[in-house]
């Protein structure tokens, strides 16, 4: 928790200091009131007292109460400001850190947990700072001051107050010990609930189509039940606190008056009045002492849950991303657009086996290099090493003569036009999706957008959309078809004018004719850019300059379509399953 507080700015620390002064003023005013009360008691009991004197003491008491109220309001305002600005900064930091994570760290935390950490956990911290800060500052000042005030006013009363404090601490200690483990698991259970809810919502179509509502509901209910039970347990345990504390305070009040009656009874005539006045004042101060301890313990009740939240936020902030930026911001050394794999092997983090084994090939500037192989043979894994979604476990991935690890990620990504297997659309328009991101050059002009959309064979449907290039695209592209989404994703890559295109099975959602025209147009307009294409269909890659055949993460063939048909049995097998005998014979 203390680690989190290092994100407080100097201005916040200043506000906390001013709050401290106001809290001290508030406590002083609160503790001043019993003095006036004692004076009023004395005046009322003393014969010949003036009404004006009583009114004056009462007026001062009212002023103290009003001043205490104003001070409390100012403190509340300042502390809320500190809490809100700290949580804003934490959200910013967590967001920035998450954005810098590689796939390894994101998968390690899980998306659901990262969302809970940057929302719910930070809210816990905000609440704790807003409530706890006041209590942590106020309670010790109040306790010490009140103890000083009651010291020497009668050991019997002091002993009763001490006893009440011990009972209070014992009671609160037991409650905390019972509730603490449950508090700790609340955040984890919230993660689970988030994960199940996300899964249900994102997979809604499949859930409905497979009539799996009951199954999903059962999973949701379990997560919901677990969280509810946890909340109920903690709330029930906490429910004992309020009446328990009330009982202790009332009991203490009673004890003080009971002791008082004995003391007054045994005192000589003139001392009776002094003792009575002391008793009234003491009971007020004793309440303040109990209240101070109560405040402190309340803070300890909020703390366990907040400590868990703070730990979870620190985990994110302290995680060192495995993908580090290199120093190279540009490369003029080699041909622009050359990609080379040198004896690359790859193992997913936490996986037991290697997925890629000793892969070596070179894609020269302007060449189209395609990857084909059965499902799970490692094609996507291989090309994901180029944009550094993961780093090669062994060997080197080299772009324009420099290991990808030596580039700054910005410089590396500026060279690439990546189209993922599953097209991703962002909430916005056709234009905002096509011109998405930056590539270190001037922003795309209208003509560039039109050309990219046209090459990607998206023009026809974009022109039919309401608003054409300004037509709305919903989050996730839910208002366009799978093929349309894929074409817009391809247009986005073209619009970047990269040196190297990376297509991860990006043509599979297109029909054969569109696939062929798109690749032809792409070749005409890409101006010597290199293309790395993962494909399932031989038709998509037949005319590639080089085809690399993968089988269980190993290169089992490398060459042109014609060469591979002759000397690569795996390729021939794929070709026979997709092409006619004549097509194979005429290759
Ligand atoms: N994040 C991951 N963690 C662990 N293993 C993974 C991960 N992603 C993929 N794999 C494993 O790596 C292997 C290769 O997957 P990859 O997606 O590269 O295959 P692919 O050839 O592109 O398949 P497809 O043609 O079906 O897309 C698979 O066996 C898969 O189980």
From TrEMBL:
<dbReference type="InterPro" id="IPR011527">
    <property type="entry name" value="ABC1_TM_dom"/>
</dbReference>
<dbReference type="InterPro" id="IPR027417">
    <property type="entry name" value="P-loop_NTPase"/>
</dbReference>
<feature type="transmembrane region" description="Helical">
    <location>
        <begin position="160"/>
        <end position="180"/>
    </location>
</feature>
<dbReference type="GO" id="GO:0016887">
    <property type="term" value="F:ATP hydrolysis activity"/>
</dbReference>
<feature type="transmembrane region" description="Helical">
    <location>
        <begin position="127"/>
        <end position="148"/>
    </location>
</feature>
<dbReference type="InterPro" id="IPR039421">
    <property type="entry name" value="Type_1_exporter"/>
</dbReference>
<dbReference type="InterPro" id="IPR036640">
    <property type="entry name" value="ABC1_TM_sf"/>
</dbReference>
<keyword id="KW-1003">Cell membrane</keyword>
<keyword id="KW-0812">Transmembrane</keyword>
<feature type="transmembrane region" description="Helical">
    <location>
        <begin position="60"/>
        <end position="83"/>
    </location>
</feature>
<dbReference type="GO" id="GO:0005886">
    <property type="term" value="C:plasma membrane"/>
</dbReference>
<keyword id="KW-0547">Nucleotide-binding</keyword>
<keyword id="KW-0067">ATP-binding</keyword>
<protein>
    <submittedName>
        <fullName>ABC transporter ATP-binding protein</fullName>
    </submittedName>
</protein>
<feature type="transmembrane region" description="Helical">
    <location>
        <begin position="12"/>
        <end position="29"/>
    </location>
</feature>
<keyword id="KW-0813">Transport</keyword>
<dbReference type="GO" id="GO:0140359">
    <property type="term" value="F:ABC-type transporter activity"/>
</dbReference>
<dbReference type="Pfam" id="PF00005">
    <property type="entry name" value="ABC_tran"/>
</dbReference>
<dbReference type="GO" id="GO:0005524">
    <property type="term" value="F:ATP binding"/>
</dbReference>
<keyword id="KW-0472">Membrane</keyword>
<feature type="transmembrane region" description="Helical">
    <location>
        <begin position="245"/>
        <end position="264"/>
    </location>
</feature>
<feature type="domain" description="ABC transporter">
    <location>
        <begin position="339"/>
        <end position="577"/>
    </location>
</feature>
<dbReference type="InterPro" id="IPR017871">
    <property type="entry name" value="ABC_transporter-like_CS"/>
</dbReference>
<feature type="domain" description="ABC transmembrane type-1">
    <location>
        <begin position="17"/>
        <end position="305"/>
    </location>
</feature>
<dbReference type="InterPro" id="IPR003593">
    <property type="entry name" value="AAA+_ATPase"/>
</dbReference>
<keyword id="KW-1133">Transmembrane helix</keyword>
<dbReference type="InterPro" id="IPR003439">
    <property type="entry name" value="ABC_transporter-like_ATP-bd"/>
</dbReference>
<dbReference type="Pfam" id="PF00664">
    <property type="entry name" value="ABC_membrane"/>
</dbReference>
<feature type="transmembrane region" description="Helical">
    <location>
        <begin position="284"/>
        <end position="303"/>
    </location>
</feature>
């Amino acid at each position: 928790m203390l680690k989190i507080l290092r994100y407080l700015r100097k201005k916040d620390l200043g506000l906390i200091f001013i709050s401290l002064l106001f809290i001290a003023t508030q406590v002083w005013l609160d503790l001043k009131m019993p003095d006036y009360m004692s004076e009023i008691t004395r005046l009322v009991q003393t014969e010949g007292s003036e009404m004006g004197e009583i009114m004056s003491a009462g007026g001062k008491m009212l002023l103290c109460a009003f001043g205490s109220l104003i001070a409390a309001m100012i403190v509340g305002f300042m502390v809320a400001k500190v809490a809100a600005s700290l949580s804003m900064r934490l959200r910013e930091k967590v967001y920035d850190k998450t954005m810098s994570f590689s796939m390894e760290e994101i998968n390690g935390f899980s998306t659901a947990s990262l969302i809970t950490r940057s929302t719910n956990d930070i809210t816990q911290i905000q609440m704790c700072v807003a409530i706890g800060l006041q209590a942590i500052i106020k309670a010790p000042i109040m306790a010490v001051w009140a103890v000083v005030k009651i010291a020497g006013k009668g050991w019997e009363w002091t002993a009763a107050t001490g006893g009440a404090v011990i009972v209070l601490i014992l009671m609160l200690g037991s409650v905390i010990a019972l509730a603490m483990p449950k508090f700790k698991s609340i955040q984890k259970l919230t993660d689970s609930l988030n994960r199940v809810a996300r899964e249900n919502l994102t997979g809604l179509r499949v859930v409905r189509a497979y009539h799996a509502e009951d199954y999903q509901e059962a999973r949701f209910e379990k997560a919901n039940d677990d969280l509810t039970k946890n909340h109920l347990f903690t709330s029930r345990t906490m429910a004992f606190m309020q009446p328990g504390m009330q009982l202790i305070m009332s009991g203490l009040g009673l004890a003080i008056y009971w002791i008082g009656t004995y003391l007054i009874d045994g005192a000589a005539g003139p001392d009776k009045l002094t003792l009575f006045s002391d008793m009234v004042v003491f009971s007020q101060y004793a309440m303040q002492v109990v209240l101070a301890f109560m405040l402190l313990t309340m803070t300890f009740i909020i703390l366990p849950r907040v400590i868990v939240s703070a730990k979870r936020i620190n985990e994110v902030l302290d995680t060192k991303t495995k993908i580090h930026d290199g120093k190279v911001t540009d490369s003029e050394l080699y041909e622009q657009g050359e990609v080379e794999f040198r004896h690359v092997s790859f193992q997913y983090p936490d996986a037991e086996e290697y997925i890629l084994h000793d892969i070596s090939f070179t894609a020269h500037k302007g060449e189209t290099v395609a990857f084909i192989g059965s499902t799970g043979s490692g094609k996507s894994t291989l090309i994901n090493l180029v944009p550094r979604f993961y780093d090669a476990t062994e060997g080197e991935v080299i772009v324009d003569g420099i290991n990808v690890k030596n580039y700054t990620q910005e410089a590396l990504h500026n060279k690439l036009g990546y189209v993922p297997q599953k097209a991703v659309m962002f909430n916005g328009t056709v234009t905002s999706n096509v011109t998405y991101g930056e590539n270190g050059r001037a922003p795309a002009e209208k003509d560039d957008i039109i050309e990219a959309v046209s090459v990607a064979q998206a023009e026809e449907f974009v022109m039919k959309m309401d608003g054409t290039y300004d037509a709305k695209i919903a989050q996730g592209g839910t208002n366009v078809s799978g093929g349309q989404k894929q074409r817009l994703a391809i247009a986005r890559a073209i619009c970047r004018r990269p040196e190297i295109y990376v297509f991860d099975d990006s043509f599979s959602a297109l029909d054969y004719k569109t696939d062929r025209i798109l690749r032809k147009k792409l070749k005409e307009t890409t101006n010597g850019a290199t293309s790395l294409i993962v494909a399932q269909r031989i038709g998509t890659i037949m005319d590639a300059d080089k085809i690399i055949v993968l089988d269980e993460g190993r290169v089992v063939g490398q060459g042109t379509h014609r060469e591979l048909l002759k000397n690569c049995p795996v390729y021939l097998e794929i070709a026979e399953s997709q092409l006619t005998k004549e097509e194979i014979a005429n290759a």
